[in-house]
Structure formats: structure tokens, C-alpha cells
Amino acid sequence: MLGNTISAQPYLLLSSLIPGALTYYLPGLLNDYKHFLYFIFVLYVCMMLVESLMMIIASLVPNFLMGRITGSRIQGFMILEGKFFRLPRDLPGPFWRYPLFYVAFHRYSYQGLFKNEFEGLEFPHLEGGASAFIIWGRDLEE
């Protein structure tokens, strides 16, 4: 497992760098190399976590198809509880909120990416205190 992890590092780095560069600059995110490097780092760590999780599942489940199904289900549960679809206060019951919400690494990656992009960002205000929302270069108040 250690040899597989070490040998996969260059490919994981390239797999996070190339698509990360395409997906970071196309929508017009912050044009700063520090923000870009943090974005790439979060992608790299997420891929390492997924690969490590799948290696653990592969060592526990002998059947290839059942291993993929089990890994997909675990990933699906983590995505559902990762603060993307529902807020933490809206999660039902103790099983969904407490162990799964804090174990799901998607929660931490979303939080890191949102802070990377939006922390310290200021939006312009129009006269009278109304916010100016601009979508694709058009003002919504026109």
C-alpha cells in the first residue's frame, strides 16, 4: 500500500494540476497564484483521500464490483453530508449530523475552497445601500 501510494504521487499531482488549471481560470476566479496553488493543493488532497479510502475498501472487500459499489456508496454519503446540499442544522438525526458530518472530508474541502475564493472579497454598493449583482457583465437592476 505504501509503494502504491508513493508511486501514484506524480500522477495525482498532474491529475490535479492540469484539470485544476482549466477549471480555475475559465470561470474567472481570483487571478492570484497563491489562491491557485491552494486550489490545486485542495484538489490533490481530496484525490489522495479518495484513493486511500478506495485502497482500504479494496483490502476489505474481495470482489471488485462489490468494492466499487461500496466505495461509491461511502462517497455518496459523504457528499450528501458535506454541507453542499443541506445546512448542518437541517440534517436529520444523530447519525447523519454528528459522525457523518464531521467525518466527511467534502465538508472541509468545500469550506477551504469557499474561504479561498470569497474571504476578504468586497462587493460594490449602489446608491441607497442596494447591492449591485452582476451576471456575465450585465446589471440585474437594468
Automatic annotation (TrEMBL):
Subcellular location: Membrane
Residues spanning the membrane: 12-30, 36-65
UniProt KW keywords: Membrane, Transmembrane, Transmembrane helix, Transport
GO molecular function: ABC-type transporter activity
Signal peptide annotation: none
Family to which the UniProt record says this protein belongs: Belongs to the ABC transporter superfamily. ABCG family. Eye pigment precursor importer (TC 3.A.1.204) subfamily.
PANTHER family registered for this protein in UniProt: ABC TRANSPORTER G FAMILY MEMBER 11, ABC TRANSPORTER G FAMILY MEMBER 11-LIKE
Boundaries of every ABC-2 type transporter transmembrane domain copy: 1-118
A GO-annotated cellular component: membrane
InterPro entries: ABC2_TM (IPR013525), Plant_ABCG (IPR052215)
Membrane topology category: Multi-pass membrane protein
Name of the featured protein: ABC-2 type transporter transmembrane domain-containing protein
Any Pfam family matching the protein: ABC2_membrane
Superkingdom as given in the UniProt entry: Eukaryota
Transmembrane helix among keywords: yes
